[in-house]
Amino acid sequence: MIILKWKRLKDNYKLNIHIHMKNFLFLFLFLLGAIFTNAQCIPDPQYSAAGIYPDTSTGLATAYVGQSYSQNITVITPTDTVVDVLGNPVQVTIDSISLMSVSGLPPNFSYSCDPPSCGFPGGTVKCAELYSTVNPTSSDIGVYDIIFETTAYASNVPLIGTITQDDVIDYYYIEISDVTAVLNVLDFNDFELKEIYPNPVNNQAKIQFVSGLEGEILFSVYNLLGEEIESRLILCSRGVNTIYLETSSYSDGIYLYSISNGNQLQTKNMVVSK
Question: What is the pTM of this model?
Answer without folding.
Answer: 0.56
